[in-house]
Amino acid sequence: MKSVPVSKLQDRSNLGFQLVPSAREEATYQQSKALGAHRDDHYIFFVTLEGSGSTVVDFEEKVIGPNTLYYILPDQIHYRIITKKAKGWYLAVDPALADPACRDIIEGWSGFHEPIILSTEEIRDYDLLLGILYRKAYEQGSKMSVLHSLLRAFFEMVANTIQLSAKVEGNTSRAAILAMQFKKLLNENIKEYRSPADYAEMLHISEPYLNEALKKTTGSTVSFWIKFRMLTEAKRLLYFTDLNVKQIAEELGFENHSYFSHIFFKETGMTALAFRRQFRERE
After folding, report:
1. Burial of 79 by CB count in 10 Å (0-12 exposed, 13-18 middle, 19+ buried)?
2. pTM of the predicted model, to two decimals?
C-alpha cells in the first residue's frame, strides 16, 4: 500500500511558520509538481489581494479569487497549488501556535469549506498584519515571542472571519461543542460505526438532539456527515493505494463490497474504478 506523503513544516522553517508574499508579476506554482498530492502537518492560509489561484482539495477544485481568505487543514489532501498573477500572502503555520479556542473554530467544522470573500477593511487589516509579521521575521534581533504574538493576532482575525462568514454561534454554544465532539468521534470511528444512533450513544444524547445540533451548526444531518466522511476516506484509498474495490470496502468496514460499490456510485455518479482512473490521469 502506498502511503499518503506528508509535507513537514520543520523541513522548511525553524520558526514554526513560513510566510511568503507574492506579487502580480509572479505567475508560478506555489507548490512543486514533484510533491504531488499530499497532506501537511500544518495549516496553510492564502490571503489573496489581487489576481487568483487554484488548488485541488480532497478531489475538489477550489478557485481563490481576489480579496479572499482560504485555508487548508492538516488532514486534507491537496495538490496543484497554482497562482495566476496573484498578489497576496501564503502562510504555513504550526497549529500548536494557535490558541485552542481559535483552533476549535478553524477546525470546528471542516467537512468542507469555501474561500471567504473579505471586505475592503478586512483585506487591508490582513495585509497590514502579515506585512508586519514578514518584516519582523527577517529583522535582526526580533524575538520569537513577538513573532508568535503576531501569529496569535492573525489566528484571532481568522477565527472571527470564519464565525462572521458562517454566521454561527460562538464555540462555547452547546451545539458547536457537540459538533466538534461528533467530528472527533467520526474521524476516529468511521471504519467501525456508521449509524447516527451509535454516535448519539457515544455522546450520551438522543439521536434527534444530535441531528438538531449538527443541522444548526453545519446545515446538514448526522447521516450526511457520516456518508461524507466515509466517501472521502474511500476516495483517498482509491487514489493513494492499489487496493482493489473489495479490499477497500473491507478496509472501511463493509462486509458486502457490492453494497459499498452501490453507495459510491449513487453518491458520486461514477464507479470506484472510474474515479481512480479519472483522478490518477489528472496528475
Report:
1. buried
2. 0.73
Residue pLDDT, tens place only, 222-262: 998 899 889 888 988 888 788 999 999 999 999 899 999 99
DSSP state of 24: T
Q: Which residue has the cell 481563490?
A: 64
Identify any residues that bridge with 60 across adjacent strands, giving them in sequence order: 57
- Encode pLDDT of 169-198 as tens digits: 444 578 878 888 898 899 889 888 989 999
- Nearest 5°: the CA angle 139, 142, 146 is 125
C-alpha count within 13 angstroms, C-beta hemisphere, residue 163: 17
**Cα–Cα distance, 156 to 135 (Å, whole number):** 20
Q: Nearest to residue 48, comparing CAs of 80, 79, 23? A: 23
Strand partners, 88: 22, 48
Look at residues 216, 211, 184 and name the one whose alpha carbon lies nearest to residue 196.
Answer: 211
Cα 18 from Cα 7, distance rounded (Å): 13
DSSP designation for 188: H
Q: What is the mean pLDDT of the chain?
A: 85
> Distance between CA 177 and CA 157 in Å, rounded?
21
pLDDT per residue as tens digits for the range 87-133 = 999 999 999 889 878 887 888 655 567 899 999 999 999 999 999 99
| Amino acid letter, 252 | L
Quote the CA–CA distance of 53 and 127 in Å, as a whole number. 17
Contact 271, 278 (CB under 8 A): no
CA distance linking residue 97 with residue 72, whole number of Å: 16
